[in-house]
Amino acid sequence: MTEFLFLIAGVIYGLIVGVIPVAGATTGLIALYPFMSYFAPHPYLGVIFCVAAVASSTTGDTFSGILLGIPGANSAAATMVDGFPLAVRGKASYALSAALTVSTINGLLWGSLTFFLMPFYARLILILGIPEMLGLTVLAFATVVFLSTRYWVRSVLALLAGIFIGLIGYNVNASPRWTFGWDYLLDGVQLIPVVVGLFAVPELIHGLSARAKTAVHENRRHGEQTLEGIKSAFSNWKLSLSGGIIGSVIGILPGIGGAMADWLAYGNAVATNPGEEFGKGNIKGVIGCEGANNAQKASSFIPTVLFGIPGAPFAAVLMSLFMYLNFEMGTMEVINDQRFLSSLTYSFMWGTLITGAVCIFLSRYVSYLAYVPYKYYFPVLLGLVTWASMQYTGGWEDLAIMLIMSVIGVAARRFKFSRPSMLIGFILAARIEKLLWQTFTIYRPLTLLTRPIFIFFVLLIFLVVTAGIRNRSRLEYS
Q1: Domain count across the chain
Q2: Residue 205, CB half-sphere, CA atoms under 13 Å: how many?
Q3: Is residue 35 assigned to a domain?
Q4: What are φ and ψ of residue 169, in 5° steps?
Q5: Which of the two ends of the chain, N or C, has the fewest CB atoms closer than 10 A to its terminal CB?
């Protein structure tokens, strides 16, 4: 019963965060950091609350995108392209019910394939040695740099900047490195101020400046439109399934995040329906990309839990929250902790199902949250993420790092430097340094050529880099 109450609390919190324009799962998780001490005596309840919040916020993102033309998160932006025109024409309930049905079904499908099979995936760790983990980490760098943005040169620079920030502090010889005489930096730059500055603050500022028309509600036809939307979701099941496949594949690739999955799924919907007009209210445009968002969130847990490599920005924050609860991702302790894995499964699956059911049948009332002026949300969210940033020392140093990273984050968003690249570089900086040192200290170069999995990763890295440099026509996801 206690687990269920925490599940419901997480669903409610995540739904509110998801409905708020440009908040999304990442900002919502950051805001939880000051409260994690309350979960410390009961860490598994903390896991249930956080993962339920992720599942519900992903579904809730749909509301502001369709009703206001302002996505609840970057990953919901593609839904807005056809969903908002439908809402302006008085078909908000039709668009919402179709989107929510597709999102929920794909969340349950790909969540099942992720969480119920997690023990099977965990066996992969047993066959990966130090060189293979190095190859996997470099592959994570390659995917986020060359597949998540057309500006790959800027993305490389962002990655290097993230690695530089991540290596500040004591080095492997316990000597200060790049601290510039500031004792605060001896223990390194803390994760939460970095994530707040790179993602939360720039998106909050963007949301404050965004302006859009609002949807036209036709309450008299709400029930009829809801039923039509559900039927449309099932009649276009192939499009929904293909979106889920795209989302699940993107989720497994470390660091890319949900925006790319949604836009690729939207592009697939356009490509597979030649002769149809998109961008002016085609329900297939909504169904195609909504199939990807929950699927991407689910599969992102695979690299996050098994290898400690975040599958998306939200997963980086989740890793930090779990570490506060003494769950370190990518370790055998976590992988062999059946209660932890069961908590992930329970919270994501039930959170997705409950959120989908509530949103579909009560969408008329949930929608009212999206119409609350953003200026009322802004100070509350900014206060929470600022408070979260100041949990390390509680002093001006925490605030200073947050402000510095906020300037960097706003500039990166403005000038198209990949923020996911910078974040994953920061998170994996110490790991890549350690793996490089271990690999080239223990193994001779010719020995590496006898390891087929390592060679496989090297070939994948080459293919990713080549494809990224050749394909310069993608949309921007940074």
Answers
A1: 1
A2: 13
A3: yes
A4: 120, -155
A5: N
Measured CA to CA, the distance from residue 455 to residue 461 in angstroms comes to 10
Assigned domain for 339 exists:
yes
Computed from CA positions of residues 308, 311, 312, 315, in that sequence, does the dihedral angle turn out positive or negative?
A: negative
DSSP state of 196: I
* DSSP-derived secondary structure letter, 275: T
Instruction: Tell me the C-alpha distance between 239 and 245, whole Å.
Output: 10
Output the CA angle 457-460-465, nearest 5 degrees. Answer: 125
- DSSP annotation of 19 reads H
Residue (of 405, 412, 57) closest to 206 by Cα position? 412
Residues 353-367: tens digit of each pLDDT:
999 888 888 777 776
The count of other CB atoms within 10 Å of the CB of residue 343 is 25
Write the CA distances from 372 to 13, 81, 214, 377, integer angstroms.
16, 22, 11, 8
Phi first, then psi, for residue 180 (nearest 5°) are 55, 30
Q: What residue numbers bound the domain in which 349 lies? A: 2-470
What the block records as the tokens of 268 is 């697939």
CA distances from 327 to 26, 56, 330, 341 (A): 19, 22, 9, 11
> 10 or 464: whose pLDDT is higher?
10
Inter-residue contact 100 to 60 (CB < 8 Å): no
Confidence band, pLDDT 50/70/90 cuts, at residue 53: very high
- The pTM assigned to this predicted structure is 0.79
CB 291 within 8 A of CB 265: yes
